[in-house]
């Protein structure tokens, strides 16, 4: 995997110096209910931070970066807080690809309930649409309560990034 020289994201590397293409960024800020859908402003703050600092594009190397989430409200909030962002629900992104996928899981709750994230088809779409790298943002305790997600996160290297101040809901 090649990434732009101006990229400051702390990609973990293998012993041979190759960046690990699948990472998990923990975010333990609780989800919010918004009408019939859910959103997570802490995860939006992390996405915004990644796009504005760590994953900045350089003039000589353009990467396509797409944000996916299972929740329509999360996509609405992402587009509201980050103008021009490419953001889609997992269901609406089927059949497409992007160089880097940033997946915002939204789910973070004391019940460790992941709702319809248990549907392996959504996990498959998220996992298979990234050409170069996949970044998953979520609450480890909530996601790992599901055996499929536990196995998925075991395939990722973990990168900790301090959560910036979350934006206000729109």
Structure in words:
- This protein has one domain (22-158): 3-Layer(aba) Sandwich (Rossmann fold).
- Helices cover 26% and strands 22% of the residues.
- It has helices at 41-54, 72-81, 120-128, 140-143, 147-154; strands at 22-26, 32-34, 37-39, 65-69, 87-89, 98-104, 130-138, 157-158.
- Strands 5-4-6-7-1-8 form a six-stranded parallel β-sheet, sandwiched between helices.
- One of its GO terms (molecular function) is 5'-3' DNA helicase activity.
- InterPro entries: Coronavir_polyprotein_1ab, DNA2/NAM7-like_C, P-loop_NTPase, SF1_C_Upf1.
- Residues 21-140 form the DNA2/NAM7 helicase-like C-terminal domain.
Q: Let me know the largest β-sheet.
A: 6 strands, parallel
Low-confidence segments: 1-5
The CATH superfamily label reads P-loop containing nucleotide triphosphate hydrolases
CATH topology: Rossmann fold
> Assembly type of the shown chains?
single chain
Radius of gyration from the CA trace?
A: 15 Å
Shape category = globular
Residues in β-strands, percent = 15-25%
Work out the helicity level. 25-40%
CATH architecture group name: 3-Layer(aba) Sandwich
Number of helices: 5
Order of helices and strands: EEEHEHEEHEHHE
Give the tally of structural domains: 1
Structural class: alpha/beta
Strand order of the largest sheet: 5-4-6-7-1-8
- CATH class value: Alpha Beta
Q: For the residues shown, what is the average pLDDT? A: 88
**Would you report the number of β strands?**
8
Distance between the termini: 37 Å
Keywords: ATP-binding, Helicase, Hydrolase, Nucleotide-binding
Pfam families: AAA_12 (PF13087)
GO molecular function: 5'-3' DNA helicase activity; ATP binding; hydrolase activity
Domain DNA2/NAM7 helicase-like C-terminal: 21-140
């Amino acid at each position: 995997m090649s990434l732009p020289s101006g990229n400051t994201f702390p990609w973990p590397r293998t012993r041979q110096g190759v960046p690990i293409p699948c990472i998990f960024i923990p975010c333990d800020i609780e989800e919010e209910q918004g009408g019939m859908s859910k959103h997570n402003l802490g995860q939006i703050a992390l996405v915004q931070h990644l796009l504005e600092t760590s994953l900045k594009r350089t003039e000589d190397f353009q990467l396509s970066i797409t944000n996916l989430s299972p929740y329509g409200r999360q996509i609405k909030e992402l587009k509201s807080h980050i103008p021009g962002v490419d953001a889609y629900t997992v269901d609406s992104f089927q059949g497409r690809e992007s160089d880097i996928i940033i997946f915002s899981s939204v789910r973070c709750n004391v019940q460790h309930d992941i709702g319809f994230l248990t549907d392996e088809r959504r996990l498959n779409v998220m996992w298979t649409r990234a050409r170069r790298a996949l970044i998953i943002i979520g609450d480890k305790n909530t996601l790992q309560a599901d055996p499929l997600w536990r196995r998925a996160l075991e395939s990722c290297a973990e990168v900790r990034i301090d959560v910036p101040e979350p934006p206000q809901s729109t």
